Amino acid sequence: MTGGPAAASMRTLIQDLETDNIADLATKANALKDVIRLWYGEGDVVTPDFIKNAAAGALAAGRTFYEPDMRGTAELREALSTYQSVLHGTAISENRSSVQPGGMQSLHIAMMLVCDPGQSVAIVEPQWPNIRHIVTLAGGKPVAVPLDWDTQRPTLDLDKLFAACDETTAAICFSSPANPTGWTATRDELAAILAFARERGIWVICDEVYNRLWYGNTRGAPSMLQVAEPEDRVLIVNSFSKAWAMTGWRIGWITHPESVVAKLSAVTQYVNSGTPSFVQVAAATALNEGEGLVSEIRERCRAGLDAAYETLSSAKGVVLPQKPMGGMYAFFRLEGEDDSRAACAKVLEAARVGLAPGFMFGASGRPWLRMCVCRDAAVVRAAGERIAETIGR
Description:
Aspartate Aminotransferase, domain 1, 4-stranded antiparallel sheet, alpha/beta, globular
C-alpha cells in the first residue's frame, strides 16, 4: 500500500481542474446578513403550475421507467421540431434534436462528439467557465479569443477568431447571447463563422441557451440554425432552464445533423441513459403552452437590466458598457480595480450585494463583475443603489 492522499493519483487533467467557482464564493458569504444575492445565473420565478402539473400527471400515470429512445420522447421531439421551425423560420425535423439532462450535459456531450484528446477548441471569451472546462475534460486545449471592448460594447474580431484556429482545431465554440457579456452574434457574423468552418472542415458549437432572452425586434436572437444547412458541422445547445424557469429540472437539448443521431444516442446511453420521462412531459408542455411565460421572463430580465443601468450609471467609479441586447446580466467594473475577486469582496462587504467575479469567465474578464438581473426589478434597483451609495461615493 502506497502512502499519500488518494487524490494525488487521479488523472492529471482532473487534478488540474479549477475548483474555484461561484458556488464556493456564495457559500463563504452565507454568514453575512441582508445580502442581495445576484451571483448565480438563475431567475427568481418558480416554475409555473401548468408545467409542474404536467410532470405530476405523468408521475401519477406511471411515467417512472427508463425512456428507451435516447433521442427523447416522440412527444418532446415533435414539440422541439415545431418550436424551432417556427422560431427560426426554417424546417427543423424532429430527427435533428436529442434531449439531454440539462444544457451542461448537452455541451459536455457535444464536445465529446467532436474533440479528440490533443485537439484545440477556439472559445470566444469572456465566457461561461464550464465551456472552457468541458474542453479540458474532453482532453482538448481551450484557446481563448477575447472580445474587443474599444467601443464600450463588446465586439468580435472575426480575423482574430480565425487566426486562433490551426491544424489542431476541432471546433469553434461560443454562446450567443453570451454569458456574461450579452454579446450577440449578428446573422452576418454567424454566416462568416460557418463559411470559415466549412472551409476548414471544423465544427461549430453554439450555446443558444439565452436565445429567447433577446431585446431586439424578433422573437429570438439570430441563430446559427438560420444560416446552416441540415448537414453542416454545427451543434446547437439549448436548455429549458432560463426562458422557462426550469433550472432545477435539468433538461436541455442538442440540435444536430441527422446523420449523427446513432452515435449521439450511443454516447447518451453510456453517459446518462437518457432523461426522465416525466421531466420530458413537463418540457413538452413548456414548449406547447409556454410562450406567455417566455415573454414574462424576457420582460423581467429587461426590467431588471433597466434598473441596474439606471442606478449604476450614476455611480462614480462604476464603468458600464452599453446596455446589452440579450442575456440576463449586467457586466461592469470598478474604476481602478483590476482584480474582480477583490472587487466582489469589496462590494459584498460594503454594499451587501453578491456578484460573480469576472476572472472566472477567462483572463479577459478579470476586471469585470457580473450581476444577474433576472429578478424583481425592485430587488435589482436596491442592489444598484447600495453599490452606488457605498462604492461609487
